[in-house]
Amino acid sequence: MTMMRCLSLLLLLLTSLPLHAERLKDLATIQGVRSNQLLGYGLVVGLDGTGDQTTQTPFTVQSIINMMQSMGITLPIGTNLQLKNVAAVMVTSSLPAFAQPGQQLDITVSSMGNAKSLRGGTLLMTPLKGADGQVYAMAQGNLLVGGVGAAASGSSTQINHLSVGRVSGGATVERALPSTLLHSDTINLELIESSFSTAGLVVEGINRQFGPGTATAQDGRVIRVRAPADSGARVAFLGRLESLNVQPGASSAKVILNARTGSVVMNQNVTLEDCAVSHGNLSVVINTAPVISQPGAFSRGDTVSTSISQIEINKEPGKVMLLEGGASLADVLKALNAIGASPQDLLAILQAMKAAGSLRAELEII
């Protein structure tokens, strides 16, 4: 079974799945409850001759001089430092919501000079600052550099990216971020994806669970919720709120094409209108015609109106697929894979359908 045929079967399975209720914590976030980025500049020492070349990175030399002066050591003017075991680095981390002093954070250390490797180095004490310029954490520790290991056969060593390392628990929080979550009688929920239908369903579910008037939608993303004033009761309320099951509204039709790998991802709302596409020696014709079924005489039945979608491909003469209801993109994929169309053919045909207005979906190429 080819890869494209497996992809087609997977898409057919996904498009047939019904919508299920999701936890509110998976659909929305609480405004003000988020992480904050931290950044710092520091030095890594103890390298085995793989540090910065000081003739090309003067900031490394200047950093060493400033550090030694802060420790009471004054270097003679004109001293030429050859520091092959030192590297200037940028240290990044993320300060989670409600972090308190003493809590440890993981940090990422990245070379900013021309050091060949940070493996085996030790990060010296580095203050980590937020966007407001305040110091929120202090970082220090021994670096763990990945990307070095033996090959599968055991006969050779594969060395990858060595200019970035991590230190687990390498930073300690020194300052807590102020929280405004308990300073108001309301909280704001922010949907991860803007949707007026989902916002309405969330408001309906919250009011049904906690009483009328508890939640009101401000727009397609923000939902205002009345919460208890007491901190303990509010935490318990937010826990129940996050666990509330809500069925989201149907998402907009979307098709994502990966032009490099030929991958196609779509959701279940993608449909097609009648069209005819010619691509090389391959053509696809989609034609939908109404079919009316009338009951027999004196049968007292009702007239039933349906539609039959016909997908015809000309690479195999006479091969036609008849499908009840409107044609979907999954049907087209199945028909194209049946004749062995390549991923490049598939991408070109979908682009042509979108340009002709037949593909009822947003087309995104990555």
UniProtKB/TrEMBL annotation:
Specify whether Signal is a keyword of the entry: yes
Coiled-coil region: none
Which terms does the UniProt entry file under GO BP? bacterial-type flagellum-dependent cell motility
Its annotated compartments are: Bacterial flagellum basal body
Subunit notes for this chain? Answer: The basal body constitutes a major portion of the flagellar organelle and consists of four rings (L,P,S, and M) mounted on a central rod.
Q: What protein family does this chain belong to?
A: Belongs to the FlgI family.
Q: What is this protein called?
A: Flagellar P-ring protein
Organism equals: Pseudomethylobacillus aquaticus
